[in-house]
Amino acid sequence: MLNFTVGPVMSSDMVRAIGQEQVPYFRTSEFSELVLECERILTEFAGAPEGSRSLFITGSGTASMEATVMNVFSTNDKVLVVNGGSFGHRFVELCELHDIPHVSIDLQLGQPLTAEHLAAYENQGFTGFLVNMHETSTGVLYDMPMISDFCKRNGLFLVVDAISAFLADPFNMAELDAQVMITGSQKALACPPGISIIVLSPKAVERVNNTKSRCMYFDLKDALKNGERGQTPFTPAVQTIRQIHARLKEIKANGGVASEVARMTMLANDFRSKIADLPFEIFSPSMSNAVTSLHPLNASAHQIFLTMKDEYNIWICPNGGELKDRVFRVGHIGCLTPEDNTTLVNAFKDMQKRGLI
Ligand SMILES: *Cc1c(COP(=O)(O)O)cnc(C)c1O
Question: Which of these, 205, 356, 204, lies nearest to 279 by C-alpha position?
Fold first, then answer.
C-alpha cells in the first residue's frame, strides 16, 4: 500500500519497529527524561520563545484544538476565527460550544485570506485570533506574516493550528509572535495517531494558569504541572510518545526542522512538476508543502480516489461535503520519496490511457 493521504501517513521502519515493542510502564525517570527531551526538541523546532512549554495530549489534533480554546480563552475574550474549510469551521464550533465570543471570517473554499478581509476588523476590540495555518481540507496555506502583523497591530493573542503545516512549511512562533502552536502525531511527524501537542509561549502559560478549566481531562494547568517532571496527569499513548521521540531525534540528527521542511518542499515540487501534463487543475492558489489539492477536469474526484484505492492499491485523499466530486488531495507528508511520486503519476497516466480521467 502506498499512502498519499494527509494522515495517518506512512511511517519509517524505525517508527514502526517501536510500535511492535511491549509498552513500558511510564511513571519512571526514564520515561520522564524521554518526555522532557521531546519537549526540548519540539519547543526548538517550533521556534518558540524562551520559557515556552510543550504539552502532550492523548487525543487527536482536535483534542488539542478544544483544550486550547477552553484553557486560553474565556467569556471575556472576543476572538476572530478564520473559517476557510472544515478545520476553520471546527474552531468556530468550539467557540460556540464553549461560549467564547467570536466572529468568523467566512472564506470561499480554496480562497486565501487577504489584507482586504482583515481590514474590516482593525480596532474592533478583538482579543484573540484563531487560524489553521494550513486549511488542510482545501489545501490553502494562509499568509502567516500578514496575520501576524494584524495581530501585533491590534494586540491579539494568536493561536495557530499548525497540525498539518508543522515540519512541512516554515513556521516560527517567536517571529510570528504566536502564543500557541498545535500539531499532531499523525501528520508530518509521521507517527501513528494518538498524541497531539500544544506548544505554549510564556504568555500562553500565564493565560492557562489564570483560566478556570471546566474539564478534568483537558485541564492544561494540570498538564503543565505534571509536565515539569516529564509526566502527564493520566496514562498517555506511551508508544506514540516513544515514536515521536525517535522521530524528533532522527530529524534533529538529519539537520533539524529546516532540512525536514526542505525535504517536504522537494517532494511537493517534484510531484507538482510531474503532473503538469495531466488533466488536473490546481485547486488552491496558495499551497502548503504538505498537500497538493487538485480539481480533475474530466472525472469525479471521488471516483478517482476509489479507483486508485481499489485497482492500484494507492491511497490519495478524498474530500467531503461540497468538494467531494470536485477535489482530491495528494499529501507529501510522511515517509515518501520521489520514486513514490513517480509510481502515483504512472498510475494516473494509466488511468488516463483507460479513459478514466
Ligand atoms: C488533521 C488536522 C486536524 C486534526 O484532526 P484530527 O482528526 O483531530 O487529528 C486539525 N487541523 C488541521 C489543519 C488538520 O490538518
Answer: 356
Q: How much is the pLDDT for 343?
A: 98
Q: How far is the CA of 60 from the centre of ligand 1 (A)?
A: 7
Identify the residues whose C-beta falls under 6 Å from ligand 1. Answer: 7, 60-62, 87, 132, 134, 136, 161, 163-164, 184, 187
Query: Ligand 1 center to residue 24 CA distance, Å?
Result: 28
Quote the Cα angle for 9-140-128, to 5°. 105
Task: Report the percent of the chain where pLDDT is more than 90.
Answer: 99
CATH of domain 255-353: 3.90.1150.10
Strand-pair partners of 128: 79, 157
* Best residue for ligand 1 mutational test, from 66, 87, 166, 183 (most atoms within 8 Å of Cβ): 87
The answer to whether 182 touches 162, Cβ cutoff 8 Å, is yes
Same CATH fold, 255-353 and 15-253? no
Mean pLDDT of 294-307: 98
Mean pLDDT, the chain, as a whole number? 97
Domain ranges of the chain: 15-253, 255-353
Which mutation among 6, 57, 135, 136 tests ligand 1's pocket best, with the greatest number of atoms within 8 A of CB? 136
Let me know: does 340 contact 328? Beta carbons within 8 Å.
Answer: no
What's the CA-to-centroid distance between 162 and ligand 1, angstroms? Answer: 9
Question: Where does residue 157 rank: exposed (0-12), middle (13-18), buried (19+ CB within 10 A)?
Answer: buried
Q: In sequence order, what are the residues at sequence separation of 6 or more whose Cβ sits closer than 8 angstroms to the Cβ of residue 259? A: 251
